[in-house]
Amino acid sequence: MSSTFLGMPAAPPRSPYGSGNLRGDEKFPKAAHHELRNDQLRRNLRKATHTIRGKRLNVTAELPDWEALRDAGSAIKTDTMNRLPELLEQLERKVTEAGGTVHWARDADEANAIVTRLVAATGSEEVIKVKSMATQEIGLNEHLESQGVRAYETDLAELIVQLADDKPSHILVPAIHRNRDEIREIFLKEIPGVDPELNAVPAELAAAARAYLREKFMTTKVAISGANFGIAETGTLSVVESEGNGRMCLTLPETLITVMGIEKVLPRYEDLEVFFQLLPRSSTGERMNPYTSLWTGVTPGDGPQEFHLVLLDNGRTAALADSVGREALNCIRCSACLNVCPVYERAGGHAYGSTYPGPIGAVLTPQLAGMHAAKDDPNSSLPYASSLCGACFDACPVKIDIPSLLVELRHQNTEQSGRTVEQAAMKAAAAVMARPGLYTTAQKAAGLGRVVAGRDKKITRLPAPFDGWSESRDLAAPPKQTFRDWFASDEGRATLGAAAREGAESRAESATPATDDSEEQR
Amino acid sequence: MNARETVLGRVRDALTLAPKPPAEVPRAYRTGRTLPDADRLALFVDRLVDYKAEVHTCAADETAATVARVLATRGARHIGVPAGLDRDWLARFDGTVQEDHADIPAPGLDQLDGVVTASRVSCAETGTIFLDGAPDQGRRALSLVPDLHVCVVDLSSVAVGVPEALARLTPHRPTTLISGPSATSDIELERVEGVHGPRTLDVIIRTDA
């Protein structure tokens, strides 16, 4: 179907404020404070992120063409975004031809309503779920619960999070913030009929989850999944996993409902040869994850006989409308950037307040859901949750330049916030610096700042409206004497004179040039 | 406007508002690789063992003996097979065999001690076996629910890398990539083999087939 040109293009809307899980309750620095006080959490995180970093480096170093794969992956995603309308229409056509039904959702609420309606049509009051970022993003489980449908998470980590009434804190390992003893406690409390002798040993805990979910897999009639890839050329969907819970959900129920962000489409089946190498090695640090499923619509006599694909916008088109920010849509959710990030390693995933934590979350979340200046939006703090060290860019399998995106979002946030006190202060500073007399007076006045400094000559809290700045930084107290005062003093003149004489002598000594280290001097 | 037209309209608007960067896809990564049989076998075995699969090699005329020996070692007495499996492979097995069909519900598969299937293609570099639901591999549930999967792989079907293996597949077939037994690293990143999928994977490689 061709669309009629109706006039000037309109900027697509963000995910509506207040829907789904794309916004926390507090700004990042405040939220991170809670997590930083938790020693156990920091130990768990440090151990986990360092383990997985090492594994990733081993298996990526193994491939001599790793950089060529990254280049291909990056270009395929860019090409995909350029051709998104035709690819989505092609995917829809192919899935429909193969016996599936395609639905479109403008936002989280619409996607939740579609899924709820589809579940209701089956008559089932429970569903089994494969770990999925998209359904976490839209808050599907909470919505289903409110409609009387019980959703069972089947991924071990998601199960731990769900049983503890907790939130995921990592894209790949959602319960990374829990250690084995905590998990044992959760299982003892929440799994009916679990062996009270259960030990805090990963193998035993995994076995307890297997036993608990086995019956659910055998009897539940509806499953809900996300998708790692959707191939436009063939209508093939793919889920990449490890435990076999994905295969169970994709194979045993009568009805399968897949919720997929529109940016997950790939042009060709052949493109999988790139992503099936990039994703597992970047994500779990394995050469290949234990299980990957590929299915195309419905296959008679094999798997669910009813298949629904829900294509989700929820702010993705708003990100696409930003020539810099759209790069974040290339993300394949491997989580390599989380594992190398010094900020994530200390603050953990919850501080970001969004389904998407870590460096990629800090650029993706504000783009999907916006940074509303008028509402003092917690998302406006996310672009600052970074030291811009660049480790995430190096680790990204599709070469997303996360640091540049963060800087761009900081710029946008400043532009959007209108005339702030900070901007007024900068303007005043510029005016003062343009007049030497005024500047000298101002510097003398700044010396008064010494009275608010502590004994360690540090100012830890500035008065409003500058308290935001000092929330996460200390400021050195202004010195007694400014540089300009010192420069004009007798002491300053004497010191500078001595330095000048010394410089002249040393230049005379080294008059014969040393050619050996010319490389360094160039 | 319905949701479909709205979303597609937004995508077109977005692409009009922000200029498209050039996107020529460079495919400089390795494809079309080949290796002599012995090297491919060695690489494949190394990767399978690394992922805790049990590997057995045999000649094609030893298939029945090898299958029987593996099933006996595992204590499997009641096994499932896809309808199109070469029944000569089970000539030496003295337990009971349930031929699969689409009407057997999942709990019926849960009663099996194990399952024996063939495979479509494999990837040596990653130790991955691809099943595509052909008659000798059966529907996906059959190789998933039983706790033991004995999978027969012909060396001629083992490709060197991922691109070479994918090139041999038919896209619309329901396809499962298997790399070792099911596993999880969800608890403190410590790998545990065996969660919901088969906890034991025996791979029989027929070196002259």
Describe this structure in words.
- The complex is a heterodimer of chains A (522) and B (209).
- Chain A has 522 residues and is α/β, with parallel strands linked by helices.
- Among the domains of chain A are: 79-318, NagB/RpiA/CoA transferase-like (Rossmann fold, 3-Layer(aba) Sandwich), CATH 3.40.50; 433-488, no CATH class.
- Chain A has helices at residues 28-36, 39-61, 66-82, 84-97, 108-122, 133-137, 140-146, 156-163, 180-190, 202-219, 245-251, 272-283, 316-320, 336-340, 342-347, 358-369, 391-395, 402-416, 421-433, 436-446, 467-470, 483-488, 490-509, 518-521; strands at 101-105, 126-129, 150-153, 222-225, 229-231, 236-241, 255-261, 265-266, 291-296, 306-312, 458-459, 475-476.
- In chain A, α3 (66-82) packs across α12 and α16 (358-369) packs parallel to α18 (402-416).
- Chain A is elongated, with a radius of gyration of 28 Å.
- The N and C termini of chain A lie far apart (63 Å).
- Chain B is an alpha/beta fold and 209 residues long.
- In chain B, the strands form 3 sheets. A 6-stranded parallel beta sheet of chain B has the order 1-12-7-4-2-3, sandwiched between helices. In chain B, strands 8-5-6-9 form a 4-stranded mixed beta sheet.
- In chain B, β10 and β11 (192-193) form a beta hairpin.
- Chains A and B meet through α2, α3, α4, β1 and α8 of A and α1, α4, α5, β9 and β10 of B.
- β9 of chain A pairs antiparallel with β9 of chain B, so a sheet runs across the interface.
